[in-house]
Amino acid sequence: WEQRYSRALSIFQRIFVSSEMGVRKPEPRSYEAVSRELEIPLDKMVFFDDTLVNIHGARAVGMPAVHVRTVGDVERSVIELIG
Predict the structure, then answer these.
(1) Pairing of strands 65-67, 47-49
(2) Beta partners for 66?
């Protein structure tokens, strides 16, 4: 996935991968760990994922979430978010 999405995600300073964090989505603590690490409230971040159960998990803890299926979805969503 990293190669497929590298261009679309290049604008982000940090990308968190749950398998590297030792927590699993959609567990609330997976989203909360990112919030603590960045010292940013959940409602001020955006979560992208291709799995609906993970999207629902993020939204359940108050994090805006975008369901993406393709690289184009990610690029369009980022453009919409940053203008």
Answers:
(1) parallel
(2) 48
Q: How far is CA 70 from CA 58, 75, 78, in A?
A: 19, 9, 13
pTM (predicted TM-score): 0.85
Q: What is the pLDDT of residue 60?
A: 98
Residue 34 is which amino acid?
V
Q: In terms of CATH architecture, what is 2-82?
A: 3-Layer(aba) Sandwich (3.40)
Work out the number of other CB atoms within 10 angstroms of the CB of residue 19: 8
pLDDT digits (tens, 9 = 90+) for 20-57: 999 999 999 999 999 999 999 999 999 999 999 999 99
